[in-house]
Design a protein that fits this description.
The protein contains nine helices and eight strands. By secondary structure, it is an alpha/beta fold. It has one domain: Alpha-Beta Barrel (TIM Barrel), CATH 3.20.20.140. The N terminus is likely disordered. Bound molecules: zinc ion. The site of zinc ion has 5 residues, from loops.
Length: about 250
């Protein structure tokens, strides 16, 4: 990962975008490039993973790929096949994600945990960070990440109990911030408690904000909201979260 070979400075990083679902993606990416925003694109299964790889090849230095297996999709997919595919491609990506546990979904928690553990150990074996989706499964996610030898983990849009923030941080974890801190009280409390040196920005685009689908450009909104929440100027937040991103993703592989 040669992040530092870019000609223009990176000002902001959207660390979580489902780029393949964004209409007029190329125009959005051109504008992102102009504003100094780079993007970590995340996949959910083989088809979207493949798309993220293609997009990152087409926009080197602007889009970096993460490939994953979303727990919500396990009922529809052949886990063995997906894991074999991930193993084949993991060396060329920035991270494994998104992966995790989703107890709101229809897949048995035990089955989910079994797959999640295998993915965590795969990430450990290849020294890759993981990007974690957790819904109604916060404690199990934190425990498994702590126990499986993963070096770096991002707890994406984490709105579990704020009392778990200390565990996440001591396990080497980071938390990502998106505009939902503006309407989700639980998420806001988590981010309030998290230290700035463990925060990065994201959008989870195209997930809508105020009824409108987002794009990686809305990372500016994440920046603005985090600045307000922490009472720290936007310039400083941009600098710190971008540095956090590089220390999290560039030095691991
Ligand atoms: Zn996502």
């Amino acid at each position: 990962m040669q992040f530092l070979q870019r000609e223009k400075p990176v000002l902001l990083v959207d660390t979580h975008s489902h780029l393949y679902d964004i209409p007029d993606m190329e125009t959005v990416l051109a504008e992102a490039e102009r504003r100094g925003i780079i993007v970590l694109g995340v996949g959910e299964e083989k088809v979207s993973n493949q798309k993220i790889l293609e997009i990152s090849r087409k926009f080197p230095g602007l889009v970096y790929p993460a490939i994953g297996l979303h727990p919500f999709l396990l009922s529809k997919l052949e886990a063995e096949e997906e894991i074999a595919w991930l193993k084949e491609h993991i060396e060329s990506v920035a991270a494994l994600g998104e992966i995790g546990l989703d107890y709101k979904g229809e897949v048995e928690p035990e089955k989910q945990k079994e797959v999640f553990k295998r993915l965590l150990s795969l990430a450990g074996e290849y020294h890759k960070p993981v990007i974690i989706h957790s819904r109604r499964a916060a404690r199990d996610c934190v425990e498994l990440v702590k126990g499986m030898g993963v070096e770096k983990a991002v707890f994406h849009w984490f709105s579990g109990s704020p009392s778990l923030v200390g565990d996440i941080v001591s396990a080497g974890g980071y938390l990502s911030v998106n505009p939902a801190i503006g309407y989700s009280h639980g998420y806001k409390r988590v981010i309030e408690r998290a230290p700035l040196e463990r925060l990065i920005l994201e959008t989870d685009s195209p997930v809508p904000y105020k009824g409108k689908p987002t794009t990686p450009l809305e990372v500016m909104l994440s920046l603005q909201m985090l600045s307000e929440l922490k009472g720290i100027p936007e310039e400083d937040i941009a600098c710190i979260t971008t540095e956090n991103f590089f220390s999290l993703f560039a030095q691991v592989s």
